[in-house]
Amino acid sequence: MALVETEYVWRNGKVLKWGDAQVHGLAHGLQYGVSVFEGIRAYTTISGGPRVFKGREHFERLHFSARSYRLPLPYTVDALLAATDELLEKNGLGDAYIRPVVVAPYGQMGPGAQFDVADVMIFAMPSNAESYPSGPKQPISVGISSWRRPPPGTLPVGAKASGNYLSSRLIALEARQNGYDDGIALSHDGLVSEAQASNVFVVKDGIVYTPSASSGILEGITRDVVLSIAQDEGLKVHETALSRETLYDADEIFLTGTASEIVPVGSVDGISVVNQKFDRTRAMQTRYFDLCKMS
Ligand code: PMP
What we know:
The mean pLDDT is about 95. Strands 8, 9, 10, 11, 12, 13, 14, 15 and 16 form a nine-stranded mixed β-sheet that branches. Strands 1, 2, 3, 4, 5, 6 and 7 form a seven-stranded antiparallel β-sheet that branches. This protein has seven helices and 16 strands. Helix 2 crosses helix 3 (about 75-90). The longest helix has 14 residues, at about 55-70. It is an alpha+beta fold. The structure holds 4'-deoxy-4'-aminopyridoxal-5'-phosphate. 4'-deoxy-4'-aminopyridoxal-5'-phosphate binds near residues 39 and 221. The site of 4'-deoxy-4'-aminopyridoxal-5'-phosphate has 14 residues, from helix 5 and strand 14.
């Protein structure tokens, strides 16, 4: 994914030039992985300007992630939302990808260091054909990863911390090496968990299934939106334990995430899903994009 520079960043309450967002090589966040972040999208709405989609939910999760690792985050959700709007305007952005990060700062060594302040930054970049493209995606191939998600009690998988993405990186690299577009990891006990950066949905006989929180997933905000859409449409929805073989028996499978939105899965481990028209997935995409673009 291309990184597209914009003119301004927001850092600790100020709008600064893009180049003023450096951190020191010995920042605690770099040494020990103590940094938390979000991935958010803004959409150009039917009424004109950009609107941050589910911004409140994302910044609430950022607070939860920061709290989990005792990172001070002295900006309220409202303040962070206002900062994001300001940044979008300063950078002249419409459809955009927004990346807030809270980094444990430079100044102390050792994993148990305590901080009075953290370094809080927000970046916003355009979403276009090269970078964070939005819209219906082509079906992808996935393979089950040999890497498992961390078991409960190892680290908080529900917090969106940089360190969690070491697992995602291994899943992504292995998938690519094996010729797949993405990988789905299993939980410690062999149940379907999630892909490198998205949640998994299975459609079978008109019923929608997705792994429950106990399967080592990050409970995605897109996942929540999709669950509400499915319920609104009167579909039966089960958040449950899913075995690997349910993926081989699926009518449709799709992945959800803020960046990826809703992506149809064409095959798992080389086994094609039954419905290659992806009717339910396409209908879900339409409803999802309608919501994103509603003002
Ligand atoms: N799981 C992981 C590991 C992710 O990185 C993401 C992307 N944030 C998701 C699921 C989907 O979360 P969301 O819908 O909130 O973007």
